[in-house]
Amino acid sequence: MGSARSDGTDGGGGADDVPVLAAHKILIAGGFGAGKTTLVAAISEVRPLLTEERLSSAGAGLDDLRGVVGKTTTTVAMDFGRITISERLVLYLFGVPGQERFWFMWDELAYGALGAVVLADVRRLRDCFPSVNYFETRKLPFVVAINCFDDAPRYDPEEVRVALDLDPDVPALLCDARQLSSVKNVLTTLVESISAENQSPRGMVSALPPV
């Protein structure tokens, strides 16, 4: 038996001492070839679950490869990764498929999500309009991360904001989906944006690791 403390309380640890783990879902969206799978793989602390399949002749008339001619695979269901922020907070990342024929899955994947990242490829900027419209319509907080491909022209985030007609409170920032520190910065920006609207748990931002 545990000994009693002088104040009359039990000196042993109780259930109230166990940290409550909060798990939140973050969606990673954007057009075909925008870098969603790369982003999830860059930051996931576990081996990411990827549903990549090789492009085939069946999708020849459906998948626009302009600007991504070197792409040979595509996500057909989702990508999944995990990042532990603290002993109290875990983020689950769900990369949603970009092609229109897979959009029917978005509602299921978006259920219960805390927020989203929309990856933008300036070579094919119009491809991220459906994602922007989807999250605006459902009032789900999101940020636009402009993926800096090596062969892509460079634009100021404010120029991209104007081109996408984003609301003033939607963050837009440059990123490199291949770099861990850059992806962390994107997620930090998203969480800070949600916290500013008082839609996230207290302490969520301060728990984020340094970038």
- Write down the Rg: 20 Å
Q: Order of strands across the widest beta sheet?
A: 2-3-4-1-5-6-7
The residue ranges in which pLDDT falls below 50 over 5 or more consecutive positions are: 1-6, 55-63, 71-76, 199-211
Give me the CATH fold name. Answer: Rossmann fold
Strand content: 25-35%
Q: How confident is the prediction overall: mean pLDDT? A: 77
- By CATH, the architecture is named 3-Layer(aba) Sandwich
Enumerate how many helices there are, as a single number: 5
DSSP E strands, number: 7
* Largest sheet features: 7 strands, mixed
Query: Portion of residues in helices?
Result: 10-25%
Order of helices and strands: EHEEEHEHEHEH
Distance between the termini: 46 Å
Structural class: alpha/beta
Q: What is the name of the CATH superfamily?
A: P-loop containing nucleotide triphosphate hydrolases
Provide the number of structural domains: 1
Shape: globular
The CATH class is: Alpha Beta
